[in-house]
Each structure stands twice: as structure tokens, then as C-alpha cells.
UniProtKB/TrEMBL annotation:
GO terms for molecular function: antiporter activity; xenobiotic transmembrane transporter activity. This is Multidrug export protein MepA. PANTHER family: MULTIDRUG EXPORT PROTEIN MEPA (PTHR43823:SF3), SPORULATION PROTEIN YKVU (PTHR43823). GO terms for cellular component: plasma membrane. It is a multi-pass membrane protein. Its main location: membrane.
Amino acid sequence: MNNQKSMEVFSKAPVSQAVFKNALPAMAAMLMVLIYNLADTFFIGQTHDALQVAAVSLATPVFLIFMAVGTVFGIGGTSVISRALGEGKEDYAKKVCSFCMWSCIIAGVIMAALFLIFMNPILSLIGASSDTWNLTKTYLTIVACSGPFVLISNCYANVIRAEGKSGNAMMGQLLGNLLNVILDPIMILGFGWNIAGAAIATVIGNVIGAGYYICYFLRGKSNLSISFKDFTVKNKVCSSVFAIGIPAALGSLLMSISQIIVNSQMAEYGDMAVAGIGVAMKVTIITGMICMGLGQGIQPLLGFCVGAKLWKRFKDIFKFSAIFALILGVFMTVLCYLSLNQIVSVFLTDTTAFNYAVQFSRILLITSFLFGLFYVLVNSIQAMGAATASLIISLSRQGIVYIPALFILKAVLGLTGLVWAQPVADIFSTILAAILYIKTYQKLSREQITRQIENNK
């Protein structure tokens, strides 16, 4: 009965109600992810050791690679499942859900092993100095052990929304992230474990989050399945998930790689510059995470409309979401600007690192008002199953445009050029996403009209 009501919200509820019912829990979940992302840096900052802050800044993009792989199955699975449910293919949706679970376990174990084996080359690659080497190694060695749980937690925070259970999707992230935030001060400051305490809290949080999602399925609360008997790679289950998931994950993966490049280039200017850029990125995450939640929340809703061929409803939902996203982006950006010094001072007390963070944040916030619109466009394209368009956007924002811009602008502007590369990439990628959205929507609309004409003959 509850699942039927969820599907009725997808197909019949007023547009504003449907958007908020699906997007607000997703935004709340991303707010918890935001708090979780800020917690390690905040409580490490309370040690008043900028080197530990720098070490967390170096380790974070490497750890995000696990989350990027989870996105392959989370975003890819959500897109395929929501369209399958819109078409009434529940058995197929179950197979996709099971494929995502067991793939997360396998990929997580393999990645954890590779990280531990190649830890020293990784530390050299990301620019760890003699002062931050052991600190960064300690953090990464501990969190690598939670690989499968990180993937499962990130995957099913998305997949469960595909069947309209945004509240349950939010709860897993809420439990894991809340526990991490509670444990951080206890382990970092109370036990005096410093950066190791932050890593242990992160591991426990991810284990609990993944455990919630597994129990959700085992208790029979879902029409989907994680049973191994439903696992298959046939009938385009694997290829359909990867077609959307890999382009989506490439954005996250390239973001990690680009942050690693930024950190290694910034290391030339000292550990305080690395600490400064790390905190500046945390500031922009405040806007980015909330807006990302909006985009992820409406994707299952739009995917259902695509599967059910409800094109007018799709257009209405997109229009409402885009306007709301732009307003949200502007509001969050202004809020960050007005409280910038206070935010940075929470993480850094060293004067040099503080000044770097404020300077870098002011540059990065120039285009953060576009985040909401960008994520609505990207998730709409993913909901339509447009793998090529999604791939192009992912490669452009954090790769084709951003990485070359880092080196070009550094050569021209020096230190600040490394920071200006992100606003340049943001503007270009938002324009590109809008163009590809229009082209994809028009293509699917024409195909639908053609099929209707053929059916009427």
C-alpha cells in the first residue's frame, strides 16, 4: 500500500507537492552529508594544528573516490529502476537493485585492497609533504577498510528514492552521518586520537549507514531486492546501469582527481596554502551539497515520467525545480558570503592559513549560485537516460575544461589562478548542460510523437 501511494505521488500529485516530497528528504540527507564532511575538518581544527587540517584536505579527495564508485551504482541504478517502475517492469527493477548491491561489495573489497597495497605511491601523488605524510597515511589506511560499506551507503541513499521512499533513503545517511558527527569530538578530542579518531568515526558511520539499508531490504520494506538470487548481468542490467552511472561517477571521480592536482600544485606554496584551499572548498560545499540534494531528489520523479511517457508533467516538474534551484543557489551563496570570516575561523586559527582560505573562498563563491540549476539540468538528463550527454558534461566540468584551466591560469595568475579555474569551469559546464538538456528533451519528444503517429496508422 505504501509503495502504491509513493507511485501515486510520482504520477498524480501536484507538481510542487511531488517535488518537495521527494527533494526535501534528499536535501536533508545531503545536509547531513555536508555536516559529516565538515565535522572532520572542524574537530581536527580544534586541535589548533594546521598540519592535521592540511592532511585531512589531502586525504579527502582520495577517499571520495570510493564515493564516486558508489555513485556508479547509485545514480545508474536509480535512473534504470525509476524508468522500469514507470513502465511497470517490477521484476527487472528488482534485478537491477540486486546487481547494484553485490557489485558494491565486490568493487569495495577490491578498491580497499588496492588502496592499502599502493598507499605510499598514492601519498606521493597527492603531494603529501614530510610534515603531513604520516598523518595522511594514518587517515587513509583506516578509512580504506570501510570501502564496501561506503559504496553501499552511497548507492542505496539514491536507489531507494527510485521507489518513492525518500524518507527511508534519508534515514540511512542521517544515522551514519549523525553517528560520525557524535563520535568525532569523542575520538579526536576526548580520547586524544586526533586524525586517527576522525578516520575511525568515519568508518563506524559508514558501517552503520550501510547496515541500515541492508536491514531495510531484509525486513521486507521494499518492492525491490538485494537477494543474490535476483543478481544478474544479463538483459542489459549491467550495461544500462553503467551507461548512466559511469558518466555520473566520472564527475565525482574527476572532482577527486582535480582536487588532488590542486593540492599537489598548491603544495608548492606551502602546507598553509593546502590547508586554506581545503577549507575554501568546504565553504563552497555548503552551497553545492544542498543543491545536489535537490537534483538527486527530483531525478526518480523525472525518470518515472520518462518511463510512463508523461512528458507534460516532466516539463512542469523541471520548470518548477529549475526556478527553485536558482533561488536556492543565490540564497546559499549570499549566506556564505555574509558569514565567510566566521565560517573559516571555525576551521583555522593560523593567520596565514586563514587569510588563504578567505581569499580562495571569495573566488570560488563567485559562481556557486549556479550549482542548483546545474544539478537540476544534469539529473534531468540522467533521468532521460541520455548516457552520451551525461558523459560529455561529466568530462567537461571537472576534466576537459577544469584541469587544463588549472595549469593555464596558474601560469598566468600564479597561486590564485589555481582557484579561478573552478569558476571558469562552472560557467562553461552550466551553459553546456542547458544546451544538452534542450537537445535531449527535444529528441525524446520527437521520438514519442513519431511512435504515436505510427500507432495511429
